[in-house]
Specification:
Layout: H1 7-17, H2 34-51, E1 52-56, E2 62-66, E3 83-90, E4 93-103, E5 115-123, E6 129-140, H3 146-151, E7 159-162, E8 168-171, E9 174-180, E10 200-210, H4 258-261, E11 263-265, E12 271-273
Antiparallel strand pairs: 1-2, 3-4, 4-9, 5-6, 5-10, 7-8, 9-10, 11-12
Length: 296
């Protein structure tokens, strides 16, 4: 994913190390306040949705066309059959993120710390294509621009068919389009054909996903990420030490690392690890043993 992966880091490095006359003083331009930029982005997105219609082919590729004066096409904003939105709190603001659900998919849904197998096309609102991957590529949703981690998990993966000639066909996958304000993209950075403060459009197809174990504790991050006792998307932090469980090697802060607490020895005396569902609870307790500090 050429542009999305860590592009911001490259821009920062290029800025820092670019040559300049030795007598010049480098003055960094401060970024715009998010509260100032978001209304501009939202107006641009709302206008696009109100003045364009979408056509979708059999493979969920989309074309956006300006509605001419007197045109009878249905604007995207009125496509209530496919236009969805979510509200996300970020930068002390509440953002509305719009997306098109072209196909939900049939399989498992990733979470925002999973790895996704996705094909995509990224465009500016004027139709300029700045990045594309016709063949699916793997990327960690945490390593890309924030909008992907919010929208892609709303979809499900599909299934694959191995053909006699060795090729693979994908079907029933999740497919959609996201309309991202700049703070969920590259914000003040200019990346290739993407100008600073540009809202972006991505057409994407979610082919597959993989769960990741970020802290290598033998418990997949999907089981350590969201706090099931809360509905606001809070991260699970069992021991309250400020380190979320999916990044904490000792989830209950008992001095014994989680990886050691979720292992057992089989009848041959070989070390094995429990599947998450089978990790036992402490005797007389309700927490799985690696989450209970009294169960060392």
């Amino acid at each position: 994913m050429k542009n999305i992966f860590k592009a911001l880091s490259f821009v920062v490095l290029a800025t820092l190390f670019a040559g300049c006359p030795k007598d010049d003083t480098i003055t960094a331009q401060p970024p715009k306040p998010y509260s100032e930029q978001y209304p501009i982005d939202k107006a641009a997105i709302d206008d696009f949705l109100a003045t364009h219609y979408v056509t979708v082919d059999a493979e969920y590729n989309t074309t956006f066309t300006l509605i001419e004066a007197g045109g009878t096409e249905i604007p995207i904003k009125d496509r209530t059959d496919i236009l969805k939105s979510i509200e996300v709190d970020r930068n002390d603001l509440t953002y509305t993120l719009y997306y098109l659900e072209l196909n939900e998919g049939i399989g498992e849904q990733p979470i925002k710390v999973d790895s996704a197998f996705v094909s995509y096309k990224g465009t500016l609102f004027d139709g300029t294509v700045f990045d594309t991957a016709e063949s699916p590529v793997w990327f960690n949703l945490q390593d890309v621009i924030p909008g992907w981690g919010e929208i892609v998990p709303k979809f499900k993966i599909g299934n694959s068919i191995e053909n006699p000639d060795g090729t693979v066909t994908y079907e029933n996958y999740g497919a959609g389009v996201m309309f991202l304000p700049s703070s969920f993209a590259y914000y003040g950075s200019s990346i290739g054909a993407i100008p600073s403060y540009a809202p972006l459009i991505f057409n994407f197809k979610l082919i597959g996903q993989k769960h990741i174990d970020h802290d290598s504790d033998r418990v997949l991050s999907v089981y350590e990420y969201y706090d099931p006792s809360k509905t606001d998307g809070s991260l699970l932090d069992t021991d309250g030490d400020g380190v979320p469980d999916y990044l904490d090697v000792d989830d209950d802060n008992d001095g014994v690392i989680t990886k050691e607490e979720v292992k057992y020895f089989d009848t041959n005396g070989d070390k094995q690890y429990y599947d998450f569902a089978n990790i036992p609870t402490c005797s007389g307790g309700s927490l799985k043993k690696h989450l209970d500090p009294s169960c060392q």
